[in-house]
Amino acid sequence: MATFRERALNEASSHCTRRYYVEEGPVSGYFGQNVLDLDKMRGYMSQKAYEAVLASARYGAKLDRSASDEIAAGMMAWAIEMGATHYTHLFHPLTDSTAEKHEAFIKFKDGQAFEKFNGSALVQQEPDASSFPTGGLRNTFEARGYSAWDPSSPVFVMDGTLCIPSVFVSYTGDALDTKAPNLKSLHALSEAAAKVSRLFDENVSSVKVNLGIEQEYFLVDESLYNSRPDLMLCGRTIVGHTSAKDQQLEDHYFGAIPSRVSSFMKDFETEAYKLGILLQTRHNEVAPNQFECAPVFCEATKAIDQNMMLMIVMQKVAERHHLKVIFHEKPFDGVNGSGKHCNWSIMTDTGVNLLSPGSTPTKNLQFLSFYASVLKAVHRHHYLLMTSVATLSNSFRLGGGEAPPAVMSVFSGSTLYGVFQSILNMSDVNESSDNSLESIKIVNSIPEIFPDNTDRNRTSPFAFTGNRFEFRAVGSSQNVASAMFVLNSIVAESLNEFLTEVLELEKSGENRSNAVMSVVRKFLAESRDIMFEGNGYSQEWEREAEARGLRAIRNVPEAYEVYHEDATVRMFSGLNVLAPNEIEARFEIFNETYVKKLQIEARVIGDMCLNHVIPAAVKYQNILIENIKGMKEIFGDEAMKLCSSEIDTLKKISAYVNHITADVESLVEARKKANRIEDIAERAKVYSYEVKSMMDKVRDSADNLEMLIDDEMWPLPKYRELLFF
Hints:
- The radius of gyration is 29 Å and the shape is globular.
- By secondary structure, it is an alpha+beta fold.
- It has 4 domains: 24-177, Roll (Ubiquitin-like (UB roll)); 178-213 and 339-389 and 408-527 and 539-575, no CATH class; 215-338, Glutamine synthetase/guanido kinase, catalytic domain (Creatine Kinase, Chain A, domain 2), CATH 3.30.590; 592-724, Four Helix Bundle (Hemerythrin (Met), subunit A) (Up-down Bundle), CATH 1.20.120.1560.
- The chain is built from 24 helices and 19 strands.
- The strands form 4 sheets. Strands 1, 2, 3, 6, 7, 8 and 9 form a 7-stranded mixed beta sheet that branches. A 6-stranded mixed beta sheet has the order 14-10-16-19-18-17.
- The two termini are 17 Å apart.
- A hairpin with a 5-residue loop joins β12 and β13 (290-295).
């Protein structure tokens, strides 16, 4: 066996099961102990300062600068008690990851050392953050940007550092992150949803979005991981033949959790609980060594921040267990990839879930208004919504016979779908002279809809699951905010349109009940093409979707063109979520990121094939040649017949080696050709169509060699070892 692989397997064999973070007593005894929540804040500042924080966190009020010094001092006092020596603004640049720069509390003056944290530090200038992608929003020579605390997400202590969840903006206020547009989209949706809600309950003043994020991931032993350059540098295996056994027997899903994995799960859950992340579920996923964890839903901003925190915690804890967490959407060919299902719902400050059908006519009518508005939003912007999850890594799942399909659709369930058909087929409504919402017959006929009447279709990228929508297309490595601000925005636009049309009908003399139902029916009719109850993976649906005018993601860089469409620009600009220059910046960044990641993968596959695969092939060739020579010395002319299989293998190996050598050379030339294209969008398309396809050819030859070369000589850990060791 090749020394490199052998050493990795031996090291992996030595890694044993062990617990590292063991807390005594129930989880409730230490839950949230590393978080400075609103209740704890009360003890570290005056009532006035606390009320300023409360107003900002709960109602989005601007933080009173006069109280900022006291708030900062309170944060520092608590953080020092928790053992912190530094602070950092934890922000989400346009990299689908988090960023942080640590600053010490310690100061020195007149020979004395002391701790200090001023209110001005809650807004931190970041003069050295020029390396983050900006899409031209700021110049390198004037790369000032600011990270500012987001009070809607509590501060916490991690590894001796006070972490301050923050937005990241340019000197001119342009959004350089995913958090700022998400906060703006939540504000737009809250305003629009509250106005529509007041058609039914005038006591509603605000609406919040709740989000529950299911995180899928793979685990690999660190020794095996470190022996795979592709996993280390690309997050996925770009060569590797499928294992004889993978997920065919469906014996991994919901199976018994291996003891080593269980110890890892218990440890990262303990750390997550301390950070106030209420993890509820853990289980094996479909593919070998694939798992899932899921927290209880909470407010969207907090949920997104917690998901990013959780990913950090999981990676840090995994190191202690000699494991590597892989968040890439498709790290292994031939088995299911990983996603991040987002359970999205909207709730009034009066405690009403606006996506809960309920059993009363009034609530049903309210529910129908919001459901129809969501349908209209998803139908109108279905391509934009799918594009929000279109990345290089997620493209290996898009349309690949697993979630998500390449085209958007909404699954409602047979009961609810039948209700919509009844509404669409209704010729008129029962008129009433008053404003009673119970006067419409069709509403009275709607049955109570239970959750188990809905979610029966795992192939739908956007499914109604009883009292919420589950957006299943988000990639496992993505920052959820990049998809959620799109969803929030398109629904806000649709709700504003719904309200406008209802009020116009009322102004013309229509009573409210009839006006609402008329607009509901109109929205359902306009968006019926997005509703689909069948198999989203089937070729029949692809053809049907095309006939309905639904656009599928065929090529990721081409999909990004949706950001240039008038409907997209008008929607984001009109809601003050993204200005035109911020939209253009994201278009540039998405294409640039696509090119850079594919560039890395192309270079890695060339390196692996030329420096790992081909040398192993040549060594095995030499063994075969020596064997044939020895046979000829013994058997003479008869040897050629006796060694026919070895000769055939020798020919195949030579052919594949020649293919790899030529294709890697062509791959290099294709990269050079693409890199000469100045326009980044066009460059991305060339990389997608030409470079990516050549990589597939190289991989095919390398994978065939893996099945020909002596297992003892193959240098890279194989799929059976990565997935089952």
